[in-house]
């Protein structure tokens, strides 16, 4: 009996009985089903599928011929993978720190109520409107010794000037870093600027009354108050670092040699060019793992800490 | 009115296949440069003339770009009528998965076994005794292209083999010419290395390593000599700051570089630039040391479809590709060698004639594509990219090369 009454109550929230909480906002829940299914099937399902098949020796087609950790052993003994990881680490750390520092400095400078603020803001934000492919090609030309910066400075008369980062295996990743920062710091500046504008005027007045210098006020008072803004910036920068791919493809295509390879490029190359899905899956699983290793302690600190406080 | 027109169209389209022979076949390929497109046009013309309809599905970019698109279309259930692939192991798994059409009956009826030369071409189309592709041309890697003008400027005679090339290199450098042009891409460096193996270590050592996957030979003294020569070549090419192969070829055409080790597709560039073989440029098959050519090239594969009409059209295209007229028309435009020895190519230029003669004399070997999986090739390309751009010693490179061969399937 109850089985027949319950659905009817839900369809028609009777004046006497309380509506079942499961059926509250039914239309909203119904509308979100496609997204829930997408998230579960595409993201979670796809992730699990990839991890499972990374333990097989799939070549062109996925096959369930399990080989244990063979793909991972091969991955970690491959020189190109090690170079990729090293490059990502250098790029990641430098880009994280420099983008934040440059973004905040620019925001703080603009925040000093300068003239032509809008113009400067547009100029600094504009690179973000360009795709990584355009950014990469542009900087490939700027850093080209025959046409770019080096040539210009030499034409000014400084004949011995040498700046050729992209053709030297030791420095190529910094050449890519320059382009990455140029592209990304404008956005961070804007977010920081919004954060700075959100700080109460009274804080500044109080700091001035106490006789605290401007720089010190920024570093000691304003910066700690901008924690949520900084967290947002960090997440944006970090996701940009992990997916670093098109910038490298456009700027150096991994060269010279394999000196500027990155993990995402390894995954794509081994899945499609080398027709070795297992190897590509193993590499992408390692990328996921490294994200999780960084993310879990952070999430624990961020969300676990709030409960305690 | 409108509905009626649609209904008529539907009725006609339903009636057409029964009434006539013409079937549309979409053909995908990555022949997009000038000479290549002209060659494809010959093929399309011949197919249209036979009563069917060629729908061109050119994919821009090299094989590396096109191949994943082609394969994912076949896997994703949206097969084209026919597609170009390099003959070799690229389609092996597609055949095993039963996705490609078995052409054995056509091949037996027309006696492909007797006409296709070298036979290895048909062998790489064969899996478990069944034939799955129609080879269309032969491209070989084993060439060095030399600029006569560059050697004239340096005041040395044009070399006739690798040793003379090495000896002449310092003179070229003195004259401000880059001795060896080399694009900074793994496949070019790997290809050049493969050519040096055949020229210096000989074809037997090459076969032991690439066909039998014998890592001991790869560690041995013959390969050591090749790696020594490669270190020299790296030195010769250190001032060559180009990426693409045709940019490197252009350095030879303009006399900025002495030579380039590149496959016979480079010849198209010389032709476009209006240069004459033997006068403006010189070609040495097998680097002049070991006149032997590999038999890489292109072949057509036909994905399996349910429609029997399409299957028939696919088989008609397959036999057309092998036919004499198409072989001559296509290969003259493409600059590649035909897959059968019984056709007349007297209008071909000096370098092509050299190639034909070697082919007729049986100076052939199977290509890397036919023996190594794309996986192994990618690993070797990565190693070569690192070797050519850095200062890796010959010993290190050799031992890592041997490790890859040891793991190869």
TrEMBL record, chain B:
InterPro entries: Bact_solute-bd_prot1 (IPR050490), SBP (IPR006059). Pfam families: SBP_bac_1 (PF01547). Its main location: periplasm. The keyword Transport applies. It is found in: Periplasm. SUPFAM superfamilies: Periplasmic binding protein-like II. It comes from the Bacteria. The keyword Transport applies. Gene3D superfamilies: Periplasmic binding protein-like II. GO terms for cellular component: periplasmic space. Residues 1-22 form the signal peptide. Part of a binding-protein-dependent transport system for a sugar. Belongs to the bacterial solute-binding protein 1 family. This is Probable sugar-binding periplasmic protein. It comes from Ahrensia marina.
């Amino acid at each position: 009996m109850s089985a027949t009454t319950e659905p009817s109550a839900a369809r028609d929230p009777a004046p006497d009985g309380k509506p079942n909480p499961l059926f509250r906002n039914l239309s909203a829940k119904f509308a979100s089903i496609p997204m829930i299914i997408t998230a579960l099937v595409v993201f979670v399902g796809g992730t699990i599928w990839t991890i499972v098949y990374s333990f097989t020796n799939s070549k062109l087609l996925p096959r369930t011929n399990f080989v244990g950790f063979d793909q991972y052993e091969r991955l970690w003994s491959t020189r190109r993978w090690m170079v990729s990881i090293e490059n990502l680490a250098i790029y990641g750390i430098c880009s994280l720190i420099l983008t934040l520092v440059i973004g905040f400095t620019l925001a703080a400078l603009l925040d000093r109520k300068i003239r032509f603020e809008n113009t400067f803001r547009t100029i600094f934000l504009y690179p973000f409107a360009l795709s990584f492919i355009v950014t990469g090609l542009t900087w490939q030309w700027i850093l080209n010794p025959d046409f770019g910066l080096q040539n210009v400075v030499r034409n000014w008369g400084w004949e011995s000037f040498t700046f050729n980062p992209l053709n030297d295996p030791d420095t190529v990743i910094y050449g890519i870093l320059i382009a990455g920062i140029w592209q990304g710091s404008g956005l961070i500046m804007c977010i920081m600027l919004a954060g700075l504008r959100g700080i109460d005027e009274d804080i500044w007045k109080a700091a001035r009354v106490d006789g605290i210098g401007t720089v010190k006020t920024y570093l000691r008072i304003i910066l700690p108050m901008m924690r949520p803004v900084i967290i947002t910036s960090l997440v944006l920068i970090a996701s940009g670092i992990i997916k670093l791919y098109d910038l490298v493809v456009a700027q150096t295509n991994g060269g010279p040699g394999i000196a500027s390879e990155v993990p995402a490029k390894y995954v794509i190359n081994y899945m499609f060019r080398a027709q070795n899905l297992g190897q590509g899956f193993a590499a992408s699983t390692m990328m996921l793992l490294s994200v999780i290793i960084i993310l879990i302690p952070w999430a624990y600190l961020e969300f676990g800490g709030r409960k305690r406080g | 009115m409108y509905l009626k027109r649609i209904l008529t169209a539907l009725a006609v389209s339903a009636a057409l296949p029964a009434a006539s022979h013409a079937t549309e076949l979409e053909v995908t390929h990555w022949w997009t440069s000038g000479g290549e497109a002209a060659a494809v046009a010959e093929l399309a013309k011949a197919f249209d003339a036979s009563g069917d309809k060629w729908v061109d599905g050119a994919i821009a970019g090299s094989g590396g770009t096109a191949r994943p698109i082609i394969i994912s279309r076949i896997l994703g259930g949206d097969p084209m009528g026919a597609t170009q692939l390099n003959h070799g192991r690229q389609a092996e798994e597609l055949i095993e998965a039963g996705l490609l059409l078995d052409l054995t009956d056509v091949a037996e009826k027309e006696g492909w076994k007797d006409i296709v030369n070298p036979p290895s071409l048909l062998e790489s189309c064969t899996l478990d005794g069944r034939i799955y592709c129609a080879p269309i041309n032969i491209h070989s890697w084993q060439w060095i292209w030399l600029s006569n003008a560059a050697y004239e400027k340096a005041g040395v005679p044009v070399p006739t083999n690798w040793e003379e090339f090495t000896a002449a290199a310092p003179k070229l450098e003195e004259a401000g010419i880059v001795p060896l042009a080399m694009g900074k891409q793994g496949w070019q460096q790997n290809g050049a290395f493969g050519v040096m193996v055949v020229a210096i270590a000989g074809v037997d050592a090459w076969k032991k390593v690439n066909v039998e996957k014998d890592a001991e030979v790869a560690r041995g003294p013959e390969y050591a000599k090749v790696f020594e020569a490669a270190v020299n070549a790296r030195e010769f090419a250190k001032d060559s700051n180009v990426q693409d192969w045709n940019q490197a070829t252009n350095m030879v055409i303009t006399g900025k570089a002495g030579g380039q080790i590149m496959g016979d597709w480079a010849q198209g560039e010389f032709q476009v630039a209006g240069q004459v073989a033997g006068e403006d440029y010189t070609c040495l098959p097998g680097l002049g040391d070991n006149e032997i050519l590999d038999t890489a090239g292109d072949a057509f594969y036909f994905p399996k479809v349910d429609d029997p009409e399409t299957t028939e059209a696919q088989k008609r295209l397959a036999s057309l590709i092998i036919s004499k007229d198409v072989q001559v028309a296509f290969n003259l435009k493409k600059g590649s060698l035909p897959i059968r020895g019984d056709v007349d190519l007297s209008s071909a230029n000096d370098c092509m004639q050299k190639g034909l003669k070697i082919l007729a004399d049986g100076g052939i070997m199977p290509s890397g594509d036919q023996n190594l999986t794309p996986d192994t090739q990618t690993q070797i390309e990565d190693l070569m990219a690192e070797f050519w751009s850095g200062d890796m010693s010959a010993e290190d490179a050799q031992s890592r090369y041997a490790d890859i061969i040891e793991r190869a399937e």
